[in-house]
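[recover] target loaded
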């Protein structure tokens, strides 16, 4: 079992996303760079990135100089979304998830975000 948001998690989650037909269909023709900031994790605050380019995806614990959007949430919220216990839209509406940057890019690519959460909701992870 992979530790949530570890380097190994990023590699295995990337493979899981690439194997998910719904997610891969959702990213077709999409260029999107999302920086995630996770606060209050057992290891402290950190960032990771989802880069969608050329009909491919990569998750990594690197940062982006100019992301389309930055999503900030607590470890608890990130884990809840990952487990499928918390919907991203509800997290945003209730203020548990904050977004900065190009909101239009996120709205245009809402299907990518939804498929991202769905594709990883059954991913075996240790929290």
């Amino acid at each position: 079992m992979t530790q949530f948001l570890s380097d190994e998690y990023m590699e295995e989650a990337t493979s899981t996303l690439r194997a998910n037909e719904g997610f891969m269909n959702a990213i077709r023709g999409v260029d999107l760079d999302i920086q995630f900031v996770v606060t209050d994790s057992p290891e402290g605050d950190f960032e990771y990135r989802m880069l969608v380019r050329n009909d491919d995806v990569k998750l990594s614990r690197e940062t982006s100089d100019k992301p389309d959007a930055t999503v900030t949430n607590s470890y608890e919220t990130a884990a809840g979304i990952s487990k499928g216990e918390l919907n991203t839209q509800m997290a945003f509406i209730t203020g548990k998830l904050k977004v900065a940057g190009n909101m239009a890019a996120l709205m245009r690519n809402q299907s990518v975000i939804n498929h991202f959460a769905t594709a990883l909701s059954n991913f075996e992870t240790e929290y």
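[recover] notes: The chain is about 40% helix and 30% strand.
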